[in-house]
Amino acid sequence: MARIFSIVNQKGGVGKTTTSVNLSAALALAGHRTLLIDIDPQCNATTAVGHEPAKHHALIGESPLHESVLATETDSLQVVPGSRRFQDADVMAAAGPDASKRLRGHLDSVIDEYDYILIDCPPSAGAMTETALTASTEVLIPIQCEYFAMVGVAQLIGTIKKVITATDGRLTFGGIVLTMYDETLELTREIEDDVRDFFGDIVFENVVPRDVALCEAPSHGKTVFQYAPRSRGAYAYTQLCMEVLQRD
Fold first, then answer.
1. Whole-prediction pTM value?
2. Among 62, 95, 173, 244, which has the highest number of CB atoms less than 10 A from its own CB?
């Protein structure tokens, strides 16, 4: 049965979509059947793997999910594209528990076809993110190494704990990954120490550095492994992938 990760952070610009896309690609390159699901209305994960957003999101409709799954240029990686129609987001948010049941049903219909399913959530701790968490087995939180890194994380942790309680422990903490890491800055080291002291062992040992290749790759509709396979970013996500696999 697949491990289902929600990649979440209510703050934008922290490397959430970058992590969703490139960790998915790393898992696929390691030989694991991987599905990337984009539920962020910005649809950046969709375009980052070379596809256009869908007119309507597959998770809103009644059609079988497998009918909306698209191949990518990375073997073993498939994607369910996002939709920029905010009406779709409103439908999911307004549906409450029914939305969670629908998403869980869609995932259950394909769960035996994949080893890993990663859900790129919107930058919010709202209803869409909570719905994704309810249907997931693990949550992964990217935290950037900047001054406001911890702002809002307490609220996000509260949402996660509520879902863990509501799902009788189905959801667990998959880990926290430090992103935009610059070892030359004292601030980076201070934030790393604070995050590791506060969260302990759930913080991944491997960090994701600032790397221009990670910024440029999405504009070409490519993962970092396709765009710059020898870059620091590609190496970092390979190491993160290995750590995720070790935590299975």
1. 0.94
2. 244
